[in-house]
Specification:
Elements lengths: L4 H25 L5 E3 L3 H20 L6 H25 L4 E6 L3 E6 L7 E8 L2 E12 L8 E4 L4 E8 L5 E8 L2 H6 L1 H21 L1 E5 L6 E5 L2 E5 L3 E5 L5 E8 L3 E6 L8 H12 L4
Parallel strand pairs: 8-9
Antiparallel strand pairs: 1-5, 2-3, 3-4, 4-5, 6-7, 7-8, 9-10, 10-11, 11-12, 12-13, 13-14
Helix pairs in contact: 1-2, 2-3
């Protein structure tokens, strides 16, 4: 059995490869579902350990080695070569590409064949980042600085963009990055929401938009002609029928109300909240 430096490097690479597996598992499973590693550190750890399987066998070469080590190197090399392309393609989706960032926040997207190509807003936290908002279905690589703004002083992230996933598509959002500041500046946020809606209302009513109201943090989503409201209740306004509009309450109790379509026009987020509040109170 060799005592050469090359043999020691070989043994070291084998033990490093074995050690990287539990390290990678801890990195993946000991963070919350809303957190991810900046720069795709977890993916790079896996790739580094995986690629050691290609290096170790040639490094061992004609060295005198124990039988177990010989078989380990051969099996490891074989599986690594067979799985190399699928693994590299798959894990490339977990390496985030930065679109823009400031001292506190980062907007990123993922590449790769299996990536969904959405953009995400995240808060930096050392080597980790905590995803605040998914800009789906917007294609991340086409997002530009002019499409959005992060207002740290008021705790709001907002923007509007025409995109090309579908012809004449659009995406609009006003969401909090700091709930305390967002609520404190509610008059500004309400004005911002109304301004964006009435500027892009024709697009918003027929496509995709998300607004979070600053007082009770009610979320209102516009999705291809329908409106979904989520807070202590969950309900949906469906404009699809030719002569009526359906208001469906999903939570806390299922209920459907049908109204004549002339009585339920397309509404801004604040109007949607008022309309649903009136329905809950039986005032319509």
């Amino acid at each position: 059995m060799s005592d050469s430096l090359r043999y020691k490097i070989l043994l070291g690479s084998v033990w490093v490869q074995i050690a990287l597996l539990p390290v990678w598992l801890c990195m993946v499973y000991l963070v919350s579902h809303s957190q991810s590693w900046r720069w795709g550190i977890d993916a790079w750890v896996f790739i580094a350990g995986f690629m050691l399987g290609v290096v170790a066998l040639p490094l061992g070469g004609d060295l005198d080695k124990p039988r177990l080590l010989k078989w380990w190197l051969r099996v490891d090399f074989t599986f690594t070569v067979i799985l190399m392309l699928p693994v590299l393609y798959f894990f490339s989706a977990f390496i985030p590409a930065t679109i823009a960032e400031n001292d506190e926040y980062i907007i990123y997207h993922s590449d790769g064949i299996v990536a969904n190509r959405s953009a995400y807003l995240a808060r930096k936290s050392g080597l980790l980042m905590e995803t605040i908002y998914d800009l789906s279905p917007y294609e991340g690589r086409r997002l530009k600085d002019s499409d959005y703004r992060i207002d740290n002083e008021r705790g709001v992230f907002y923007g509007s963009k025409i995109y090309n996933i579908r012809q004449n598509g659009s995406r609009t959002w006003v969401v909090p990055v700091h709930y305390g500041k967002y609520a404190k500046n509610k008059e500004y946020v309400y004005h911002l929401i109304d301004s964006l809606y009435f500027t892009h209302g024709e697009w918003i009513d027929n496509d995709e938009a998300t607004f979070i109201l600053p007082e009770c943090f009610t979320r209102i989503d516009y999705t291809h002609g329908n409106v979904l409201l989520t807070d202590s209740i969950s309900c949906k306004i469906e404009y699809g029928q030719p002569d009526s509009v359906s208001v469906i309450f999903y939570h806390p109790q299922w209920k459907e109300i049908r109204l004549h379509n002339d009585s339920v026009p397309h509404m801004s987020p604040t109007q949607v909240q008022q309309f649903i509040s009136q329905l809950k109170g039986g005032k319509r």
